[in-house]
Amino acid sequence: MIELNYFLLLSGILFSIGVTGVLIRRNAIIIFMSIELMLNSINLSLVAFSSFLGNITGQIFVFFVMTVAAAEAAVGLAIVISLYRNKETVNIDEINILKR
Amino acid sequence: MAAYTLSILIFFPIVFSIPIFFFNKEKTTLIKTYALIISLITFIISVYIFFIFNPDSGEYAFVERRVWIPLLNSYYQVGIDGISLLLILLTTFIIPLSILASFNTIKNRTKEFYFLILLLEGSLIGVFCATDLLLFYFFWEFILIPMYFLIGIWGSDDRVYATVKFFIYTMTGSVLLLIGIIWLGFLCIPYVGFFSLDLTKLITVTSSLPMDKQIYLFILFTLGFLIKVPLFPFHTWLPDAHVQAPTAGSVILASLLLKMGTYGLIRFSFELFPAAFIKLTPIIAVLAVVGIIYGALLSIVQKDMKKLVAYSSVSHLGFVVLGIFALTQESLQGSVLQMVNHGLSTGALFLIVGMLYERRHTKEISEFGGLMKVMPVFSAIFLIVCLSSIGLPGLNGFVGEFLILVGAFNAPNLHSYSYTIFATTAVILSAVYLLWLFQRVMTGPIENEKNKDLKDVSKLELCTLIPILIFIVWIGVQPNTFLKISENSVKKVLLIYDSAKQRINNNDAVPK
Amino acid sequence: MQLKQTLDSLNNFLPETTIIITLLVCIIADIILNKKSPITSLIAIAGLLIASYFVSLQIGIKTSIFSGMIVVDPYSVFFKFLFILSTIFVIIFAYASKEMKNSGHKNEHVYLMLSLTLGAFLMSSSINFLMMYLSLELVSLSSYILAGYTKKVKRSSEAAMKYVIYGAASSGIMIYAMSLLYGFTGSMNIFEIGRFLTSNSAGSNPIMIISIVMITAGFGYKISSVPFHFWTPDVYEGSPIPITAFLAVTSSASGFAVLIRFFSTTFLKSYEAINGNWQIIDGVKWTEILIVISVASMIIGNFVAIWQTSLKRLLAYSSIAQTGYILLGLVVANQAGLQAMFVYLIAYLFMNLGAFYATIMISNKLNSDNMEDMKGLGYRSPFVCVSMTIFMFALSGIPATAGFVGKFYLFSALIEQRMLWLALIGLLNSVVSLFFYVKVVKYMFLMRPDTGSTSKIQYGFGNYVVLLLLAVPTIFFGIYFTPLLRIAEASISMFGIK
């Protein structure tokens, strides 16, 4: 039996990696991947808590998070594509028409 | 009629300003005459009120009280005493004149101009009538909007800067006032029993508040009013606004808007927080005296006529503030009268400068000289107005200033003669800057070619100036007509002073 | 038993059901009808009106449905009316906007707006983390697509891109905190969490402060408060103006709905019936966090807005500042503050939508929302500009407008709770805000037009009617605000408290 703390630690590390990725990477696709990483680390912690507490709610939440993540990815990638058609780049440093 | 008198007075110009928008834009004469007639009818209503007003009681007359916002216990509550009546009369008197003065000067967007002036008139009367703090604040703030457009649209070249400065300055003051009003309402809940902003109720309970709270509230209220007056360190918006404003705007600003501040000092700062008023008197009296002298000195060195008059306003209103803070029967009545006097003579000075500007399109003193030869009637009027502003005996300025100085000299609240002594020097200084102005503009040889064929005053201009001259002389020789209106109201105000002083003495006597 | 409960719940779910059905009908209608047809919009408005009828049936009810997922209470009813009103207006805006017409789409925006409204409905009534998260995501997903609606316009797709990244990241941060709270307390229901925290006096546990900050990130991004506001100016500027108006009002009001409910129920120990003060669970410092956020929003929003030349960007920063004001109502943590927020939200609906609609009308004709191009516009289209002036003065809180009433109430609530300094900061900020609100008026009326045309600009009659519908309440509620107060007073009672 692995202790709860290890799961939480792993989830925390993964979450931090995800947040760092969002903050420092410049490629929109990689940013989306980092967001996915964040969401999956959340799933991990939810499942861990759920099994630790013997409470099913956490696991149900995970299914919804996965669904929403898929929807978000779909919308996000669609927007990336429309942006690419307009600007031929997915680098967010070059997304700078606004903000002057 | 009697039950609605004040509401009619407040809302008559406001309601009848709206039809202006349905007039044909081309028919400027119709619009002008319409606005003039409306303002004259307002004046007649106010004169009617003057005649049926009973000056002996000193209590609020024509009180109206209607539920406005029941959840706030807020009432639409108006009423006037002698002090407000004088200022209302001044308002309704000056507005038609400033409309007359705009007949030839405002050539574009006439509809909007007269609409805003009438709107302004209604809200000004509202300020002087309101006895509920929320209602008062409504009118007080609302005045900014028409004034903003009056200066901003019809002003001269640098108007935008001046407007924004005026707006931001006075808004800052208003915001402090708003905090004070709300805080006062909450602090008084234990004494009144519920949240109320009714002035007549609050006056009876504010003395029970802790002293430090009274002082904070006093500062919040008074700062708002002093910015409007404007007293010495807060005056910098005034010259800019005056210089840029159109003639009518300057007249209204100087004669009426500034009086809102001094009126607020008596009606709210003092009546609500007499003890704090007494405690902080030295600071404000010093500022007033500094303002009196500083304004006068700056007036001497001005090259622009409008700026000169603007700074002289700072000086004259310093007198008014000093008179208010001296808190004697003479000085307080002098201050109320001086508010009217300043409204008349400074208003007239701005009208005169406006007339010169219209002829030569400059306000530089050095551009003029020797106008006496080409404009004899004009120069006579100019001289009378100057002398009235200086305070020549027999004219109105003398009565007000004399009463203030006499009252302040022995005032127990000031504790010292020195305020009066310093303030008196400004009487001399005002003679310097005004007579020097007259000398440079009117006397001597005509050096500038452009001045050679200036026309003397037209009939229209005479119509605007003569009524003011009548009152200048009237107040000068028969001030009692006006003094007796405010006499009993001032007495009642001073009763508050006596009881507050009694309380302070009692508190000081009790060992800690 | 379970089935019966669900069926009962459906009875109280009629407004949402109506919106779902309307949404489907709109999709079908849009497929059948041709591009220019306004019928889709009309169907949507009719559906919303029917929904508002069903919402009106819920007045006074206070119950939880779907096994404690969502509730029906006066609080949610208030927000539902607010969302319906603003959605109806925005659908009209979108119909009037040239930008939307030129986007090359049929009427997709209508059903996206409806789905956003549905999400907002659920947000205002959810009491469970799962439901909060799902409804928030429904709002977010619809708004991402709406922000990138004019997909051939570079600015628009850039805006959508930024929005999606910020939105996904902050909702991720939020649910991480939710998972922590779940692990800590063993429940997703905010009432049970509150009970757990009270009975174990666990409020001062460090995990609480971390969770609160992280959850604030999720909600704070929806209401665009500092420091989660970075998307706001770009998205507001990049999106078509009707969408911007929609985001500024409905989306941010839904954020407020869930934020208020979350903080006021989760961390509530007890409730004083006498003066309406909330007893917050010991050690939970959410008011302090919100004070910082609110002051920062006011200051940054107002000061940055001063330098803007684009009207849309100016309104974006003004929205950030307004968020700061509205949050002030929550930090006093009592019923009076809540009431003040409600008053302000109603006022905000009219004045902000009005400001955006006037912007739409102006930029339709000028093809620009830069204030430099608006010099002297007041004389070319006086009606629009006078209305704009009313909205600007209302937003800055000058009397005789609804904005003043809102501010008056907010600051009254603060002063009543002896938070004088906060009131002073707020009011001084509103003086700062005058700089830029008045700047708009200045360009329209005080500046003379440079060159070019000085001809009058004509608008259709319908435009004026819509503008009046927004301007008249702004003034009416400013002078006679008893109805506002009554509505707010009736709506403050939440499921669980009072």
Explain this structure.
- The complex is a heterotrimer of chains A (100), B (512) and C (498).
- Chain A is mostly helical and 100 residues long.
- The longest helix of chain A is centred in the last third of the chain and has 31 residues, at 57-87.
- The radius of gyration of chain A is 17 Å and the shape is elongated.
- In chain A, α2 (28-53) runs antiparallel to α3 (57-87).
- Chain A is built from three helices and no strands.
- Chain B has a domain at 301-483.
- Chain B has helices at 5-15, 28-52, 82-101, 110-129, 133-142, 144-154, 159-187, 189-192, 199-205, 211-228, 237-244, 247-272, 274-301, 305-326, 329-360, 371-374, 376-390, 396-409, 418-442, 459-477, 480-509; strands at 61-69, 74-80.
- Chain C has a domain at 308-498.
- In chain C, α3 packs antiparallel against α4 and α13 runs parallel beside α19 (420-446).
- Chain C is globular and about 70 Å long.
- Chains in contact: A-C, B-C.
- The B-C interface holds B 68-72, 109, 137-138, 141-142, 144-145, 148-149, 152-153, 159-160, 163-164, 167-168, 171-172, 175-176, 178-179, 182-183, 185-186 and C 379, 393, 398-400, 404, 408, 411-412, 415-416, 420, 423-424, 427-428, 430-431, 434-435, 438, 441-442, 445-447, 480-482, 485-486, 489.
Briefly characterize the structure:
By secondary structure, chain A is mainly α.
Indicate the topology.
The complex is a heterotrimer of chains A (100), B (512) and C (498).
Chain A: H1 4-24, H2 28-53, H3 57-87
Helix pairs in contact in A: 1-2, 2-3
Chain B: H1 5-15, H2 28-52, E1 61-69, E2 74-80, H3 82-101, H4 110-129, H5 133-142, H6 144-154, H7 159-187, H8 189-192, H9 199-205, H10 211-228, H11 237-244, H12 247-272, H13 274-301, H14 305-326, H15 329-360, H16 371-374, H17 376-390, H18 396-409, H19 418-442, H20 459-477, H21 480-509
Antiparallel strand pairs in B: 1-2
Chain C: H1 2-11, H2 14-32, H3 39-57, E1 63-65, E2 70-72, H4 74-96, H5 98-101, H6 108-125, H7 129-147, H8 154-185, H9 190-199, H10 206-222, H11 231-238, H12 241-266, E3 268-271, E4 278-280, H13 286-306, H14 311-331, H15 335-366, H16 377-380, H17 382-396, H18 402-416, H19 420-446, H20 461-479, H21 482-491
Helix pairs in contact in C: 2-3, 2-6, 3-4, 4-6, 4-12, 4-15, 4-21, 6-7, 6-12, 7-8, 7-12, 8-10, 8-11, 10-12, 11-14, 12-14, 12-15, 13-14, 13-19, 14-15, 14-18, 14-19, 15-17, 15-18, 15-20, 15-21, 17-19, 17-20, 18-19, 18-20
